[in-house]
Design a protein that fits this description.
With about 350 residues, the protein is mostly beta strands. It has a single domain, classed as Jelly Rolls, CATH 2.60.120.200. It is about 5% helix and about 35% strand. The N terminus and C terminus are likely disordered. The protein has 2 helices and 22 strands.
Length: about 350
């Protein structure tokens, strides 16, 4: 099981044991379509190591994605985004990077075309993350070359090993491209690999934590979509995490990488029906369509963009909608659920 996201303090939170902080959730701004990751002009690079997304300088009207930290480890090329981990000095931990969408979604079918790092101790991720730390995960452990792991967190409470699951790939290995899908509506979350459903998690689960006051363990706040590659660490300072990841890395080669070609987004409305945008009026500037990722492996380091527009949205994967409408009063629950959260030390 994952113990924490290393080197990214903002990704985890604790409720009962942490420091109480007010946190209002960002609004959803979902537009259905395919967003390619092979165009530097739609990527904003954050060079402020203390900042975290969303960034005020990266409005969705100009950018589709943000490089959140360590931009030197993120490359954009014909195949899309590649994040590289380089062998660290003796006793060190490799630093990765992360790509986030510039906009939040609340309920959508999200598919990414992803190739993962097949090396022990390295974790390739595709997740959703809200301001109040609701989280839906794919975590691909490099030591398990034919499997993927899923997890779900609510409001940042650290119930590790409780809500996770492991799934076999329908075919092939993780270092080949596969379609990974998170299909999230107000009733359930489906995890799919190459259009095969590997998990169905409904909104009928409850935490035993008394601080949650019988709330369902189910993400219900607008979330960024995020992609990353990270090193699980060493077995001295992160023994449990390293054991989970099959690490530490062998570093039998000087670097390892993972790649993401594009992300397909199908927005859902409050009745779990597929729509072109949600809320109504969620529109952003469009630019000329980008070409499909090619077979070329050439990449170039991401540079800070100045201004641009989003790629034209093309038809996304066929959505699966839920059968039940959102329960009455859930909008108020969403607002209240993001009011208090805390940070915990990694």
């Amino acid at each position: 099981m994952r113990l924490s996201h290393p080197a990214v303090v903002v990704l985890a939170a604790v409720g009962s044991a942490g420091v109480a902080l007010a946190a209002a959730n960002s609004p959803a701004n979902c537009v259905s379509g395919r967003y390619y990751m092979n165009d530097t002009s739609v990527v904003y690079t954050n060079n402020n190591k203390t900042a975290s997304p969303p960034f005020a300088d990266a409005p969705p009207s100009k950018y589709a994605f943000t490089i959140d930290y360590n931009p030197e480890n993120a490359q954009i090329g014909p195949n899309g985004l590649t994040i590289t981990l380089n062998k660290p000095p003796p006793g060190g931990i490799a630093t990765g990077s992360r790509l986030s969408t510039s906009f939040h979604v609340l309920h959508a079918r999200i598919t990414t075309h992803m190739r993962c790092a097949a090396e022990q101790g390295l974790i390739t991720t595709f997740i959703t993350m809200s301001d109040s730390k609701d989280e839906i995960d794919y975590e691909i452990v490099g030591a398990q070359v034919t499997q993927a792991q899923s997890n779900v967190f609510y409001q940042g409470y650290p119930e590790y090993g409780v809500w996770s699951a492991t799934h076999n790939l329908p075919s092939g290995t993780i270092d080949q491209y596969h379609d990974y899908t998170i299909d999230w509506n107000s009733d359930r979350i489906l995890w799919q690999i190459d259009n095969t459903t590997v998990r169905n998690f409904t909104n009928t689960h409850y935490s035993t934590n008394p601080a949650l006051a019988n709330q369902t363990w189910f993400p219900n706040t607008p979330s960024l979509i995020q992609f990353s590659l990270w090193d699980s660490g060493d077995d001295v300072t992160n023994a449990g995490q390293v054991a989970w990841s099959g690490g530490p890395p062998s570093w039998s080669q000087p670097s390892y990488n993972a790649s993401w070609a594009y992300v397909d987004i199908q927005c859902y409305d409050d009745n779990n029906s597929p729509v072109s945008a949600w809320p109504v009026g969620s529109v952003r500037a469009q630019s000329s369509p980008l070409p499909s990722p090619s077979s070329s492996s050439t990449t170039t380091t991401v540079q800070s963009a100045t201004s641009s527009q989003l790629p034209t949205a093309s038809p996304s994967a066929t959505p699966k909608s839920g059968s039940l409408a959102r329960a009455a009063g859930s909008t108020m629950a969403v607002v209240l659920s993001g009011l208090v959260w805390g940070l915990f030390a990694l």
